[in-house]
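Why does residue order matter? Because the sequence determines the fold. Keep that principle in mind as you read this record.
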Amino acid sequence: MADTKSQGLVFPPANSKKRAEHDDMDNNDYVAAKKSMLLSSAAAAAWEDPAAALASARHEFGEHGGVNMSIEASATFTVMEPETLRKMFSGELGADRDFFIYSRHFNPTVLNLSRQMAALEGTEAAYCTSSGMSAISSVLLQLVSSGEHIVAARTVYGGTHALMSHFFPRACNITTTFVDISDLDMVRNAIEVGKTKVLYFEGMSNPTLTVANIPELSRIGHEKGVTVVVDNTFSPMVLSPVKLGADVVVHSISKFISGGADIIAGVVCGPASLVNSMMDLHQGSLMILGPTMNPKVAFELAERIPHLGLRMKEHCHRAMVYARRMKKMGLKVIYPGLDDHPQHELLKSMGNKDYGYGGLLCLDMGTEERANRLMNLLQNCTQFGFMAVSLGYYETLMSCSGSSTSSEMNDEEKALAGISPGLVRMSIGYIGTLEQRWSQFEKAISRMQDSGLLNNE
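Structure:
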């Protein structure tokens, strides 16, 4: 890992001791009280449930005693004595001691959100970024160098697939072997000891909802000496990859965690050593590339995370009910909560209790024509949901994955990934009553049947 001295340790080792006072200001009880609320290593070790972990994390109060934190909108920060600047740039003083230089490096509001995300995923540290893709690209560029190799799942978000299959080979001399993540022997055989540096997959794949065997994949990765990185965007609260053996978790916070379809953001959650190395002044991917999160965005997100668990439970509950009813109608539905899903028992064994099986389901309509006809009826005739990419919104969002979010893949790649031309991905919302929305779905299916376009084969 790269040296972190130049920027100070934002997430100090568990056995380190912070000095009680600042170098350039008098200590006071308020500062001490704030610092005592840092998530301790003991609290992290006692992690059992994501909601409990979030409730145990540090709560940042406002500048004037507000129950909500203040927004630190400054791009740069002042000090009381000139000597303090030298100490900050030499690494003697850092954000872990509430010393800040410039908001591209660290910002107090963003750092608070990062602490919440670390608590959510049960990791030592986290760093929030301007988008999910910036989180993914930054962590991979930190872990993998020119001439080295990644093993990745065939079924990943289209942007991630394009990054690995096109951008990395051209710009970075980094190659990727795509594998069936359910075939553990294929995964094992694809890893080249000494050359492969990362095993990358999604906890619940986009869009096919294949569930990864995180414990076994992590064991294989560690036996081969590689870092296991899991994209948990589809399953926050449902899965906790690090607790199942993974090393690093990334999210597109834009999705379920935000919940409002109004913010673009990402996060890297993992060991403190990794996060600190990514902020190294000379070699850190986050520091050098600068995918900075706006503190105003961080504030908004921090206010939404406390009710993420409630939202996820309702997303998952409705997806389960709809999936069962769709199956009874004779539709080809893919949902990990159904008994006939290939990884149903696996997800049941790995998932956090009471959070369900995810808020997404897929309907395979066979052809793109039927998929488009169904979505048109659901949006424009019965108002069941919206034709839009992304997920985690309070309204149901639906898209034909092969011609939208996975369009970066060619036909052969989509076939290998199990993405059929008529695969409709639905992110199930929770607005309105469950029965109201189901009635709207039934009306659209009835229209499909009346027009003779519904093919249940």
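Residues 307-451 form a domain with the Aspartate Aminotransferase, domain 1 fold (CATH 3.90.1150.10).
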